[in-house]
Amino acid sequence: MKPVGLFAAVAALLAASVAALALSRSGDAAPATTSHLDHTHMTMQTTAKAPSAAQTVLALEMRRLWFEHVEWTRLAIVDFAAGSPALNASLARLLQNQTDIGDAIKPFFGDKAGNKLTSLLHDHITIAVELLKAAKDGDTTAFDDAKTRWYQNANDVADFLSAANPKNWARADMRQMMKVHLDQTLAEASDELTGHYGKSVRKYDRIEHHMLMMADELSAGIVAKFPNKFR
Known about the structure:
Elements: H1 3-23, H2 36-46, H3 53-82, H4 87-109, H5 111-137, H6 140-164, H7 171-193, H8 197-225
Helix pairs in contact: 1-2, 1-3, 3-4, 3-7, 3-8, 4-5, 5-6, 6-7, 7-8
């Protein structure tokens, strides 16, 4: 296939994938009412214009980064549950992913914003480790404390994103997406820690689906805020 044809195929696949994710959001605990995110998807589905090369590159990069986020999170959960000596290496790679995500928004929102997002996501991971340890130890007090801080951190991430791009990343939508991510990850970890491995795997499938949808929402919001960068 010629390079031009290959790009067209990738762009078409990406557009179709985004549309498919939009149509199947109901399985990810989406709000019952039509949200700003739904309108974003409707616009993307009905427009006849194919994504530009810059849009496609951004969308694929955001998908790669957020897919790695849940991929390395799962490996860390599995390593932790199994008591594997590979845990520290998995956690180190997972934390690097948070830096990579922060770096990805710097060209659009600046270094300060990118570093802030990295810091918030770093806390997202370290608090999750506290949560796993408390669950494994049966320490209810520590578990409840970590869980409260974990969900508050998720709101902080959502509020940060919304403040950076309020027109395209509504606060309620960002909070809902982060809450679903935490709910799903907590359920996945619970099954892994209790030996329900098949259930854990099935929950991870849903986690992947939700995270790719979230990545698409974030890239769409960046394109909408900075259209001149994607002509």
